[in-house]
Amino acid sequence: MYRSSGVACALVLVFSACGNDSSSGGEVPAWEGSEPTAPTPAGDAPGAPVDTDPAAPGASDPTPPNGEAPATNEGNVPVGGLSPGDDAPGGDAPNDEGDGSDDPDTVPPSDDSPVVPPITPPNPGEVLAFPGAQGFGRFSVGARGRDVVHVTNLNDSGAGSLRDAISQANRTVVFDVGGVIHLESRLVFKNNQTIAGQTAPGGGITLYGDGTSFSAANNTIVRYVRFRMGRIGESEKDTITMANGHDVIWDHCSLSWGRDGTFDLNVESGEQLYNLTLQDSIVSQGLQTHSTGGLVATTGTSIIRSLYIDNNSRNPKARGTLQFVNNVVYNWVVSGYILGDTAGRSDGAMVGNYFIPGPETNGGTLDSPTPQYNLFASGNFYDSNKNGTLDGRLLGQGDFGSVTWQTTPSVPFPDVPALTAQEAFEYVSAHAGASIFRDAVDDYVVSELASLGQRGATISDETSLGLPNVVGNLPSAAAPADVDRDGMADAWERANGLDPADVNDRNGDRNGDGWTNLEEYINSLAR
Ligand SMILES: [Ca+2]
Ligand SMILES: [Ca+2]
Ligand SMILES: [Ca+2]
Ligand SMILES: [Ca+2]
Q1: Which listed residue, of 78, 132, 193, 314, carries a Cα 20 to 30 Å from 355's Cα?
Q2: Residue 147 CA to ligand 4 centre (angstroms)
């Protein structure tokens, strides 16, 4: 079902432990292609070139915050390992997690038992959020079978605006207009919404000017939307934040310019936060001086085939249960991927990712590992020579420092068909983000990625990019006619045996596959 246009995907089940096939959990992936990528014992990554990066400041293994013995890379090359955490100059601001601290916190509980994510068991016949939905958030139902509302203008608020459309739960939001919505205040989503950005004509939809919250927006689906907060947004806030709730999937979204985090999922005390997926997306240019991808501290999140680029630190900061598959991380400054940096237990899987330092990179690729971080890792690559060619090496166990190394996942993770790291680089380069029309901002950062070490920079002000209208121009187009306003275009309804004069046929299921007719229409626009 998954349409991976343009890439010959080596669809290899990397691990399978989602309650239905634990027998293969943790098997060494049978990689296809030319790269020998079986996980290697500690410290023997084959052909590891000498890392010529300048030494990371503080990479000489200071005592980590929790007092455990300094981790070393066990004789391997210093990919980064420990650095002074991501609290280095220019790193985290003290306001960071909204709780006034960045200390080893209560997330997740700091006992020794696995933090088992409350996976929603896949009931027989359970329907994915959409074809190709993967990871913990794949069963989000959105507004399936509920109401539909049209966004008819680009106003910040009022009748016909997106803000008005999402003011009620249980709505599929379709767009009759494309372009930039200038947010004058934060946008707060509600539960059981389907935000069908792929319906926006022309260049699609960009939200610019402030951030968004998905706290308690349970069972929500968001596709093909650009979230660009910007310096004009509220200080100390995230581009996307979520502090409680479950079952949300963001697909083909472009996130940038957070003033705190850019993609920040941090469970608040006493709450739960789980069953979340970010896939085929871009998290870019968190604004200095904080400049982070974000903190992901939940009991079940998957980040898949996405690009973290030009963030000073936290690409992401991983705590709790996080599955990180086929992502590309480029041009971090002080910290790449942060392995917990907390006394609480974490359970992670990292498979088929590519870490590529850029011109500003001077800190740990795999930063602040702790023994409380239980990590299953396989097929991750690292290309540090900044030579304009993708020619990295396999990361071995020793590169991950003092994590507790797991040869099989320490908790069940959903099945995710994985690419090799090299294939992931190609896929992400071509398809990540709101890719139906790739805007100037995404073009900018993806071209930096394509330089493979030669270009890339964090920014403190989005206007410094010098793009027209700050966010680039989006081509305009007219939406197709939808006379009955059920969200499905007249022509598509006719072609599929539906009635362009019947608003209620949207919630039928003409072919019995579990997706409503409206869902089939909006999913037909994704590509
Ligand atoms: Ca290279
Ligand atoms: Ca219609
Ligand atoms: Ca109809
Ligand atoms: Ca159907």
Answers
A1: 132
A2: 17
